[in-house]
Each structure stands twice: as C-alpha cells, then as structure tokens.
Amino acid sequence: MRLPVLVFDIETLTDLKSGAHLYGLDLPQESLESALTKLRRQESGSEFQRLPLHEIVCISGLWIDEKGVMTLFSFSQEQWSEAEILQKFLSIFDKRHPTLVSWNGSQFDLPVILFRAMYHGLSAPSLFDQGEIDSQKRYNNYQNRYHHRHVDLMDLMAMFNGRNFQKLDDVAYLLGYPGKRGQTGYYIPEYVRTEQWLELTSYCEGDVLNTWLVYLRFLLLKGQILPEDHRLWIQATIHYLQGQPQQKDFLRVWQESSIQTDFTASDFPTPQH
Q: Is the pTM of this model over 0.90?
C-alpha cells in the first residue's frame, strides 16, 4: 500500500440558485426543487441532477499517514460554506500527494469537485494538473483512469466495464461489512434542512469507512498486502473506531455483519463466557 492514503466521499444537494439560472426559472424558492426535478426527469428519464448542479454540503475523508495512523474527518456546511469546504479539502493536496481512494469518484465526486471549484473561482493544480505544470503528472495524475494515484474502486472492480458497476452498499455488505445500514442519500436534504449535522457527517463517514474496508480487501486480492497485514489493518481500524463515538453504530453493525462470511467471522473477538 502506498501511503499516505486518503479515502473520501462527498454529499450534495441540488443548487437551486444555479438551476434557476440555467433553466431561466422565476419561481419561489419552495417550488424550485420540484420544478428542477421535473425538468431533469423530462431530459434524462432520471431525477439525478446534472453534475454542475450538485452543491457540496459535506466532504468526509479517512487519512492514513506514512506510519499507519488514521484520522477520520468531515467538512460540512454546519461550519463552512461550500467554497470553504472545497478550500479545506483542496488544500490537502498542496502539501501532500496521497493515494486517493473512492467509490465512483472518477465519475461523480471528482467531476463535481471540479465544477464547484470552478464555480467559486478556486485553484487546485495539485489535484487537477495533468502535466501542464508538473511534467511527472502527464500520465500519473488524479484523473488518469489507468494509473493508481486515484483508485476508483467501482471502476477497477468492474474491470472498467460500466455493465459491471456495483453499489458500494451491496459490495460492502456481501463482503461482511456494514454497508449503508438502511440509510440512503435520499435523507441528505432533510438532514441539511433540519440541521441534523451529526447524521449527515456520520452517513458520509460511513461511506468512507466502507470504501476503506473494501479497498483493504482489494489490496489483499491483488497481493499488495499480505494476509497478516490485512488482519492488522482490520484490527487497527476497529481499535481506531472504538475511540470515535459517532461511529458506534457503524461498529455495531460491522460486528453483526462480520459473522455472515467465513472470512470476516474472526474480525471481532468472541465474548468469553
């Protein structure tokens, strides 16, 4: 494993102001969401908005440094504007060049970050340079699909074939990990509207943790870590999360899920009677 590693995920809402501008809508605020959803459904048959209309409300990450020390973090609109969230996340790459790990990051998270950074007039050459500034990044950069500066697990595990794409929730759960635990992105607007910031960040961090656990299993498959190292990383992750109160439910569900597969059955010690 090439350290440091940054596993990340974003949560978004529809940017109503930009949507109204794009479609020329002059409607009261409370009517915009449904109008934009209807227009999008007519355009594409789906309610999933165009990428530039996704306003970022949270970015979560798990940072694993060169010594294997873990730090789980979230930047959300509880404390910062979207522009400030982006600045805080992008500034990481000014100082460090981690292996970036995501689930569908190349098709969703990174393009949304690109569009929204441009919207706010931000500069992020360390993340988006493709050799124009640093010639060493001509091929090995965070956008290149076939290099591993950015590991998009959804793309890699589908062998770059869109017909094979799977949901993180399904893959994590089948491998003996928690998955989304009954939560979905459908609740994100409600969390923001009602200022349930802990629920928002816990949800986003849950996706990050599932991605990290799937990444470890993928590295094991590829022979990039040995079985004993995999066990040590799993135990280190459990130990770290035991000190993170907001992830108590994640740990509980992980322990319940782990007994569903032979490989993960020993992740948690059996209580002594």
A: yes
